[in-house]
């Protein structure tokens, strides 16, 4: 029952006017960047990391939480009104969401996405509140070798399940791990891969890497293959949700939450898989199967709920184990580190006030998002009409600004440019970006735990795999990869069927 | 319902299928990975190991990462030889069906390099105006004065916000000493 008291204390902190303001700034920024093409939550948090030097931890983490949740909301607007998803997790929303918009029911689609996100976000935050302290209490007993095992699990699942092939995912992870090596070895104080450049002695700044591969990489990629012609924006339409829409939406919201949260908590491919699973579940359970692909509201309500629930689920391993399973989560870990705070089981003991204020702010942020987004949908749509040359020039300008303001070194800008070219090539040749970011953040932590584990056990490598927890973790890799590959196959099949159904539909329309 | 607004072009032949022969454009990237891996391993032998190290020292992890780079690079090459192509990432403003516009990329890189050169002598306001104006013009904003004007506005506002409200340092260049700029 102590947790309830702590949560109430958290609310008392989060409801202070100052923190409410940061939460509001966070959700507005998050929604804006979620709506804007080319900018995702990972990049936004990275761009705002330099702010952490002038803000206190609670304020900036509350703001980052707002950005994180807001970004998930904003993503649905793009997929419904532009018919081109911004991220993998909103691909499936595009199908029925845009079909609804083309039929003049865009407002209803946006509403079911927003309310579904609220319902899922709130329920999943309750689940987080209940699950996280328990996990943290169990995790306190883990030793360094157990952390090594957990990190290996995270590396392999993130790398193998994202992107177009496991080899490319692992290559991306290796690039991130290499970038994480640059700097001074924490245990012996030796410089590694610094090439005698003093600016590299402290390592490559996370901001520079993340902003380079995300922002500059994205801008270069868009420049290389810019979509021509007018922006294909579908009008929102007038009709809101009808009584029938409500009765068809609430079950998918709940089912999406139930699918999304557990998938978010395990490292098995992230929110994308959850949305596809939710979509195929809704289609199977529906009495109106023929409507799917042509504007079934269930096909928007379920996946959007699953997406948000998974986003909350990702916070469980992040807060309790310090284990990021997405690029955004990895950068939030970097934000914690910039305050000298280490996410992990001890977080709930040592930084109890901070964690509970953060969790309370998730509830607050969800309410804010609902209140903001139902009436303001039409305002957000305006953001979609920003002329693309100005949008991407702005992204580049802020990328440079963010990287320069960290250390005020021109060398960092050259590094930014080089990493931007790397990010562009990775996009062009199908190497996923997220494993590199996870590798960059988690690599140094994994090395430290590995060396501590070996030092404790007098260099005996068998100790790494002989603790009961490590055995469970390593055997779960097989299961996780198996489940992950199975889910990916299902996803691929579902999207192939969907594409076929849509083609038939379009052909039918043309006749 | 009007004509299908979606999928403006008919989908091209799927590039996920197995293609015979080498997709040469994709080869340099995994080759570079292998090279980086070998470099990592060789360079790691030069890291000083203090005598007091117990367990594994500062070299072991670099060796492992170097090996991973080599193995994944080779794995991608083997995949390419067997006809497994990479799938380019999709996005709102990306048309994966058009070829790469190298000139445009080179011009954007040029704009960024201009900023790196200009930021210290001429200060953020001027350098950022050049970057924004140049980048937007490269991407198709016309006439030139319009992106330059927007860029100047953004540059001045960020200069003031960052130096005054956030307490960060940005070089002001010729505006050094002007109120609110530094």
From TrEMBL, chain B:
TM region positions: 27-49, 61-81, 102-119, 125-141, 148-170
All residue ranges annotated as the DUF1468 domain in the record: 31-171
InterPro entries xrefs: DUF1468 (IPR009936)
Keywords noted in UniProt: Membrane, Transmembrane, Transmembrane helix
UniProt xrefs under Pfam families: TctB
Taxonomy, superkingdom: Bacteria
The protein's name: Tripartite tricarboxylate transporter TctB family protein
Species name: Pseudonocardia aurantiaca
Organism classification: Bacteria, Bacillati, Actinomycetota, Actinomycetes, Pseudonocardiales
